[in-house]
Amino acid sequence: MWLLLKYCKSLLRNLLLPPAGPLLLGLLGLVLLQRRPRLARVLLAVSIASLWLLSTPWVADALTVLAEGSPALELSQVGQAQAIVILGGGGQRAFAPEYNGPAAEPYLLEKLAYGAYLARHTGLPILLTGYHVEAIAMRDSLARNFGLRARWIDDQAYDTFENARNSAGLLRADGIGRVLLLTRATHMRRSLREFRAAGIESIAAPVGVYAPRDTGAFRLLPSPEALLRSYMASYELIGEPVRELLAATHLRRH
């Protein structure tokens, strides 16, 4: 039953967020074109306009800034951290022919690259947390691409709540209570709250922190990369209120 609920959650997320959300709105407009032409035209206009805007760097940047909650980490802030926790998310391949095995895709690989950078500068051990093949791809990519081995691997975390809960159990078993928490900058606010609720003191180590990119008219031209950033930021802006609701209703607690 729980696996079915997880599947439904992922399905609903992909249907509501761009690009599927605006496309479904446009599809509804086409269905209503004969019966309710005025409403149909409004839906079609909103669908096209929203998809265009969400695909522009201008809107993607605005949503990204709104979703982010932590600045880039200064190495002087590491303090008494005892480990680095790298959260999954960002894509993986179960089998990459060029590596003859699992491999992290760009956004996940960016996390691992930053984790390797921090590990080399601090000497701290690494915990990887993800779901099934994702965690294996993280482990293999970290070892193969950066020459580092994770001390702990959690391959049972389907979402951020489980990332925090499972990581807390592994860390406490080794007497660790303070970590550098590494995830996408847009995902950091929710991650910090979940880990702190699980009893792990966490220092934000975000990757992919916003910095100005395109300039001039290019900020209003759609691109696949901007649409992806809009998707990720929108997901986090919706995900945090959902997390608060689940915590307030005690449907989920550590």
Element layout with pairings:
Elements: H1 2-16, H2 20-31, H3 37-54, H4 57-67, E1 83-87, E2 92-96, E3 101-104, H5 106-122, E4 126-129, H6 133-146, E5 152-154, H7 160-173, E6 178-182, H8 188-197, E7 201-204, H9 224-248
Parallel strand pairs: 1-4, 1-6, 4-5, 6-7
Antiparallel strand pairs: 2-3
Helix pairs in contact: 2-3, 4-9, 5-6, 7-8
Walk me through the structure.
With 254 residues, this protein is of the alpha/beta class. It has one domain: HUPs (Rossmann fold, 3-Layer(aba) Sandwich). It contains nine helices and seven strands. The protein has a five-stranded parallel sheet, with helices on both faces. A two-stranded antiparallel sheet has the order 2-3. Helix 6 links the parallel strand 4 and strand 5. The relative contact order is 0.15. The model has no long low-confidence stretch (mean pLDDT 93).
Sum this structure up briefly.
This protein is of the alpha/beta class and 254 residues long. Helices cover 54% and strands 12% of the residues.
Q: What percent of residues adopt helix (DSSP H or I)?
A: 40-55%
**CATH architecture descriptor:** 3-Layer(aba) Sandwich
> H/E series, N to C?
HHHHEEEHEHEHEHEH
**Radius of gyration in whole Å, from Cα?**
20 Å
The side-by-side strand order for the widest beta sheet comes to 5-4-1-6-7
- Give me the secondary-structure category: alpha/beta
CATH homology-level superfamily: HUPs
Low-confidence stretches: none
Total strands: 7
Distance between the termini: 20 Å
CATH topology: Rossmann fold
Number of helices: 9
User: How would you sum up the major sheet?
Assistant: 5 strands, parallel
Morphology call: globular
Per CATH, the class reads: Alpha Beta
